[in-house]
Write a structure and sequence with these properties.
252 residues, mainly alpha, globular
């Protein structure tokens, strides 16, 4: 237990010193939220003004685990893999399993801290939310997304084992999700049918925003779609994970 605690502390220190995580998983969502609100809300009717702000807030909150966990963890772990850090740690009796668990726990802590900073910033610049149930529900769903994205990042590293291709693939996935989730200025339902289907039916990000917006507004909640999209995303990621395991078995 003491060794695990030390590993988690080490990973948390590493995360706190990583400028990439601060820039892309904390500063960027705050800046995007503020700028998009300034540009979009001028043409929004007063009766749906706060609803649109909530939708923007929720949409950019998904950037936190995407940037921090998917991109950040893939970049950091691929560098460690290239430098032989996991093998050296095993020589000191630290198993690969313990290393992965410590990384996962530290990433969850990072998500909680980053969401807290983002939420405080959004409220400071004018976000109004009457139903405070949103925050635990939102946080729980983002942690689930982050855990799945952690497995995705781990799988990509296992397949490519080098920083360059790992970061390129992770960045490609990041921007693809960003686009099909409607965070690039075009709503998911305005995209071509194939991309709209992926964004709305196969990935959880669009449904995350819809579900939490309805929660705040007191509308009926579509639990079925929320569960289905999260499950679909998890299945896709676990298929990639099993492919990475097969590739590693063949190479060994």
């Amino acid at each position: 237990m003491k060794r695990m605690n030390n590993l988690i502390k080490y990973e948390l220190k590493s995360l706190s010193r990583n400028g990439f995580n601060w820039a892309f998983a904390i500063v960027m969502p705050c800046v995007l939220y503020y700028l998009i609100c300034l540009s979009v809300l001028e043409s929004v009717p007063n009766q749906i003004f706060n609803q649109v702000k909530i939708e923007i807030f929720l949409g950019f909150s998904t950037v936190i685990p995407l940037a921090g966990v998917l991109l950040g963890n893939a970049a950091t772990y691929s560098k460690e893999y290239e430098e032989g850090v996991p093998k050296r740690m095993m020589l000191f009796g630290i198993s690969k399993k313990d290393t992965i668990i410590s990384k996962l726990v530290s990433q969850i802590v990072f998500i909680i801290v980053a969401i807290a900073i983002y939420t405080i910033f959004a409220i400071t610049v004018g976000l109004q939310i009457d139903n405070f149930l949103l925050f635990p529900v939102m946080l729980a769903l983002l942690i689930i997304q982050g855990m799945v994205e952690f497995i995705l990042a781990y799988s990509i590293v296992n397949i490519f084992k080098k920083f360059g291709p790992t970061f390129a693939i992770s960045m490609g996935i990041y921007f693809f999700i960003f686009i099909v989730s409607g965070n690039m200025g075009i709503k998911a339902d305005q995209l071509p049918k194939a991309l709209a289907f992926i964004g709305e039916k196969m990935l959880p990000f669009v449904e995350f925003t819809k579900f939490n917006t309805n929660l705040v507004l007191g509308n009926s909640l579509n639990y079925k779609m929320l569960i289905m999209t999260n499950l679909s995303f998890a299945i896709i990621v676990f298929l990639i994970y099993f492919v990475s395991k097969l590739i590693n078995k063949r190479m060994n």
